[in-house]
Design goal:
single chain, about 375 residues, mainly alpha, Growth Hormone, Chain: A, about 0% strand, globular
Length: about 375
């Protein structure tokens, strides 16, 4: 991680620390939240709905947070307030275990939790200035935090009850709020104007295509993010193995992030994005057809480096190129809305209804098709 020594004037370790702690929280939620819901009696439809809430709100609310930031110039203040209310609202999970009770609590929590990541992405890119190719050297610490969380908790839940998941998430969210106070506001873009209006940019065919591709890529992750842990558990794998598999995917992502800045200098963004979509389709097919073969599952998990790591790094660069100046916050928010919001919500919701009716294999096949369609759209409409 020597690259930060060559970029002067950025709070490298504070930004990296925020990513680390934020994705520790994600590393609790993604693999273990569905298992917790299953443990308290929720069926697959209810699990799909409750999982989709935490991403569905991003469709609309992240743009609201981006608008506030772009009009006030107080990015870190917004993150601090949103992180505080994330902790306060999630604390209510400790007192409810009914479907509708959890639905309402998660809805409020998600409104505030969805504010932070798009804005910390914008803050990081603003601090980097012309060195945006170095983004992955900061973002990689989020992946490291995720790895540690899923790996350690996989072993912890062999010893303690999965019922401790809400308490662990709450503690993690509180630490994220505390960390947010250590980061200075980035180089201000308040009052700096882009050459085009937001409406003009959004009507450009390549921008529409980019957001459609982002939607399809994250929708294809629906079976994985919502049911992968349950899928492995139902096929006889232990919680330790489940945690190790989640961690393995992100270890592959970390390795890619270490070299991604070099790839983006040498390769065209369009080709990197198309490759990530093609490898995502391969990943879902391997996961669906070869669940009984540990070696194939391991190979499939290493493809997380492409289906998420490469994809996300390239998408962030495209968004940064299209949305400049005072539109930066809303640009990152729209990326989050279309992918981690609408894409993951639709993928989780559809999978929640289809999982018991048509089976896991069909869900993973549909995920592969979504990724292939995204690759074709990239090929036709995106520029280099």
């Amino acid at each position: 991680m020597r690259i930060h020594n060559r970029i002067q004037g950025i709070p490298y370790w504070r930004l990296s620390g925020f990513y680390f702690l934020f994705f520790v929280t994600v590393g609790v939620i993604l693999p273990y939240w569905a298992l917790y819901l299953k443990s308290i009696g929720m069926d697959s439809r209810q699990i799909g709905i409750l999982s989709s809430i935490m991403v569905f709100t991003k469709i609309f609310i992240t743009f609201f947070w981006g608008w506030i930031v772009d009009h006030t110039g107080r990015r870190m203040r917004v993150i601090q307030i949103a992180s505080l209310f994330s902790a306060i609202s999630f604390a209510l999970v400790l007192f409810v275990d009914s479907f509708w009770g959890l639905f309402l609590v998660l809805l409020v929590f998600s409104v505030f939790w969805s504010a932070s990541l798009p804005q910390i992405e914008a803050a990081t890119l603003a601090h980097l200035g012309e060195s945006t190719h170095a983004y992955t050297s900061i973002r990689v610490w989020g992946s490291i935090g995720f790895i540690l969380a899923v790996w350690l908790l996989g072993m912890v839940f062999e010893v303690i009850s999965i019922g401790y998941v809400p308490l662990i998430i709450l503690a993690s969210v509180i630490v994220v709020w505390l960390m947010s106070h250590s980061i200075p506001d980035n180089r201000s873009v308040h009052g700096e104007h882009a050459k085009e209006s937001l409406a003009t940019i959004l009507l450009r065919p390549e921008v529409i295509a980019l957001f459609v591709v982002c939607f399809l890529m994250l929708a294809s992750h629906g079976p994985y993010y919502t049911f992968y842990s349950i899928y492995l558990e139902d096929n006889g794998y232990s919680s330790t193995f489940i945690g190790q598999m989640w961690a393995l995917g992100v270890i592959a992502e970390v390795i890619l992030f270490m070299y991604m800045h070099k790839l983006m200098i040498r390769c065209r963004l369009k080709l990197l994005l198309m490759a990530s979509l093609l490898l995502a389709a391969l990943r879902w097919l391997l996961t669906g057809f070869f669940v009984d073969h540990v070696f194939v599952l391991i190979i499939a998990q290493t493809l997380h480096a492409a289906s998420f790591g490469m994809y996300h790094a390239v998408a962030i660069q495209y968004v940064h190129q299209y949305f400049r100046g005072h539109l930066q916050g809303r640009g990152q928010a729209l990326y989050s809305s279309s992918s981690f919001g609408a894409g993951m919500a639709v993928g989780s919701l559809v999978c929640g209804y289809a999982w018991d009716k048509v089976g896991a294999l069909v869900c993973f096949e549909a995920a592969a098709i979504a990724a292939i369609v995204g690759m074709l759209i990239s090929w036709i409409f995106l520029r280099n």
